[in-house]
Amino acid sequence: DGGITQSPKYLFRKEGQNVTLSCEQNLNHDAMYWYRQDPGQGLRLIYYSQIVNDFQKGDIAEGYSVSREKKESFPLTVTSAQKNPTAFYLCASSEGTGTPISYGYTFGSGTRLTVV
Amino acid sequence: AQTVTQSQPEMSVQEAETVTLSCTYDTSESDYYLFWYKQPPSRQMILVIRQEAYKQQNATENRFSVNFQKAAKSFSLKISDSQLGDAAMYFCAYLIPLGGATNKLIFGTGTLLAVQP
Description:
With 116 residues, chain A is mostly beta strands.
């Protein structure tokens, strides 16, 4: 079955460390996204990518970095510059050019990151 | 600025009863898409229902229906015959294009729905 796989499910980071969250999709979707979810704030867009080797900052990109070397993969690195990284992170994808954009996103099951 | 407002942080409904979750949004666009997503305790985001702004007819999906009032910029979700499995956080979302192949979902802050047996 097609879908999005995020790993790990839980991740613990020490102060000053960089950590990378994995996101893989087998839906053949062109666009991929990273959202951050905090209690009482809904979901906020961190980064998005339309195609391989291209990505753009979202609303809260500071302290994060991404890469898109393959269509299927869109990993997110939480750097030491992110001052409050404890949150739930969701990866998503959507169909690209030439297809209806009306269907919204397919989401992964998320990664819970905690700073220890 | 495009915003989505869910004014009910928490709601409760008796099993088999009907509940309505409220959502308002702000936009200057004439053509757009609206969604309701469900997030159960597993944290998986599940699409419940969607509405195209150019369609006057309200969307329905089994026990889920919306009341879309375009002029009022209102998009409420009605859940009929509520079931225990409906207990979850519900997010209203508005889709805007970012250019090219991408678009952006703007989310409300969510409504936590409890279903009482």
